Amino acid sequence: MQSQINNFTKENIFSIETEEELIQAFRLRDQKKLILPERLQFPLNVRSYFTWKEPSGVYTYLVFKMPNWDLPRGVAFKRTAHSGESVGGLCNWCHAYGSSEEIGFLSVTMSAQVSNSYIICQDLRCIEKIEEASMLAGKDPEKHIAELYRRMEKLFENISNYKPD
Prior knowledge:
This protein is α+β, with helices and mostly antiparallel strands.
């Protein structure tokens, strides 16, 4: 992984060389749900993390790599449909505020009986929201981006360390 400086911060850049490498970033249980975006070209150069939604909008995928990891890791989030009136919410990763269409439950299947849910941005545009808010406030986003990376790293640690009873 390399580092690149943009207008705001030092950021993590990594590359995914092939479609097979992208698929292998995901756990086997997530590979079964994987629908890759059309017209994806490799090598895929990634700024911070890579995310996309499959066409039905049920699954949102995240591929992320910390500098100390050998390979990128991926996860399939399942969107939990909200019912009732649209309400506001706060993303636990970037602290952006939005409606229940923008901020909501995304769950990760841990086993056939267990899943973990996160109240986060439905589109996982957290880094862009941090950069936008920092720019508007005239502040450096570095600290908030580092916190976002730590939260994502923790998600992948929880997935890796999960042991069913």
